[in-house]
Amino acid sequence: MAQQNAPPTVVTPMPRRSGLHPAGWSATSWALIGVSPFLIFAVLFLLLPMAFLIVGAFQDADGNFTFGNLADLMQPQILRAYWISIQISAASAIAGAIIGAWLAYAAVGGGLPAWIRPTLMTFSGVASQFAGVPLAFAFLATLGRTGLITTLLIKYAGFNIYSTGFNLLSFTGLTLTYLYFQIPLMVLILTPALDGLKREWREASSILGATTWQYWRHVAFPVLWPSVLGATLLLFANSFGAVATAYALTGSSLNIVTILLYAQIRGDVLHNANLGYALALGMIIITGLSNATYIWLRSRSERWLK
C-alpha cells in the first residue's frame, strides 16, 4: 500500500514588534510628540494673545463689555493711520513683488552662471529676516542726511538727494526700507513656483508654433498668477504688521497704525490700552484676510504645479 504524503506544514511567522515604538505607541503618537513644541508655541504666543486682544477690544478700563473701543476706531486720526499703513504696505508689496519676480525668473531661467542662484537664495533667506532696529540703522547710515551714499553723491556728483524732496523719515523712505526684506521674500516664495513649470509645456508650445510671449501669456502666466498674487498679499501682510523698523526709523513722525498701537499700549499721550486692543483687532482682520487669500491662491497654484 502506497504511503500518502503528509500535507506540508504552514508556519505562520509571528509578528515582529518594531523596536522603534514601545508597546501601545503608534507612529502617530510619536509624531504628535515631535510636533508638540510647535503646537505649544502657537498656543502660547499666537492663539492666547489673540484671544486676549479680542476680549480686551470689547472691554472698557473697568472690564465691562462695550462697543466703544470699536466705535473709537472711526476717529479721523485712527482712520488716517490705517490708510497710511495700507498705502505703505501696498506700495512695498507691489514693488517688492515686481522686482522679486524678475530676480527669481533671472535666477531660474535667465541663463545666468550656476553660482548666482544659490548665492541669491542664501542672501534672500538672510535678508528676508533682517528687520527692526538693525535695518533702520543700516538705512540711516546709507541714505540718511549724512549717510554714505548721500555723502558720496554730494562729493563726487554734486547731487544732494535731499534737495529733490526725498526724506528717509517719510512715506517714501519707509517704503524703500521695507523693500529690503520684501524683495528677498518674494524671491523665496516665487522660485519654487517657477521651478514647477514643466519643460514639456514649453516644448509643446514651441512645437505648435507659439512664440515666447504667447507661451508666457497663455500657458505660464495663467499657472503662475495665483502664486504671484498670493505672494503679493503675503508681502502686504508682512509689511502691514511691521513695527520695529518703522518706529526705529521714523519714531512718531509718521502716523501708521502699528506706531499708534504701540503708543496706546505703552501709555503715551492718550493712554487707552483697550483702544490699543481694538487697533490690534483691526490689524488681525486685515492681515488674516490677506493670509487666508494667500493660502487659497497657493492651493490653486499647487494643483497645476504638482
UniProtKB/TrEMBL annotation:
Keyword match RNA-binding: no
ABC transmembrane type-1 domain mapped to chain residues: 82-296
Keywords: Cell membrane, Membrane, Transmembrane, Transmembrane helix, Transport
Pfam families noted in UniProt: BPD_transp_1
Biological process annotations from GO: transmembrane transport
Domain of life according to the entry: Bacteria
Cellular component GO terms held in the UniProt record: plasma membrane
Bilayer topology term: Multi-pass membrane protein
KW Nucleotide-binding (keyword) present: no
Family statement: Belongs to the binding-protein-dependent transport system permease family. CysTW subfamily.
PANTHER family per the UniProt record, alphabetical: INNER MEMBRANE ABC TRANSPORTER PERMEASE PROTEIN YDCU-RELATED, INNER MEMBRANE ABC TRANSPORTER PERMEASE PROTEIN YDCU-RELATED-RELATED
Name this protein carries in UniProt: Putative spermidine/putrescine transport system permease protein
Organism (species): Pseudoxanthobacter soli DSM 19599
